[in-house]
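user: Here is a favour to ask of a fellow structure person. I have my own habits and do not want them to colour yours. Could you put it straight underneath, so I can go through it closely?

assistant:
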Amino acid sequence: MSLFRLAWAHFRIGAMNELQYRVNLVVQVFQSALAVATGLVGLWLVFSQTDDLVGWGAPELLAVMGVHIAMGGVIQMVIEPNMAKLMDDVRRGTLDYVLTKPADSQALVSMREVRIWSFVDVVVGAIVLGVAVVNLERSVGWIDAAGFAAALLLGAIMIYCFWLILTTTAFRLVRVENILELFQGVYQAGRWPVAIYPFWLRTSLTFLVPLAFAITVPAESLTSRLTPGTFVLASSFTAALLIVTRIVWRVGLRYYSGASA
């Protein structure tokens, strides 16, 4: 079975499980509305004091906010539930059920769970992005749109790699959940363009926790700020991170002993 068909099969199973709890859709809509309201209040507070933030105007910061919400939806829909299940399997020693299947283990642990209601955040983020684009001073060309899509995909891959590397530490450490909860707090820093932070924090949010590549860079593409050099750097960093993640996963499996060991 190809990876695409395997992913589709797991998506259908996950969607059917989630559809049993439709009230969660109401909760998710409320959470998304609250996130948008909080973000808009933050923007209002900023622009009640200044006309721009390190060169970013109100529509441009709205674009950053839209990417932040949409990327958060992708994380909560696919990445976070799969990493949480992986940690649980390692702790309980039930990862054997995955390792004995005739498919790539890294791919399997990355696509078993899906929370479809979190797709509401993706839709809300897209709406916020649309409002931002309409209010930009210059129109968004097809090159900007293509760059945005590519940068968004690269950013999602980097966030996935970051989460899997962190989760793989569960093979050697206990209570990794605390580290992942810390990421949720750090992720809020991506609500603003990384240019507003001091150098050390900007560097950390670029290469240690790749929020700059995942959020700021796609927003830069929509607002015609993305340079070819930045895009090449993002592409190279994504390729390197994929290789490192694969190595870390293979090394981590060596320390897995299973429930019967």
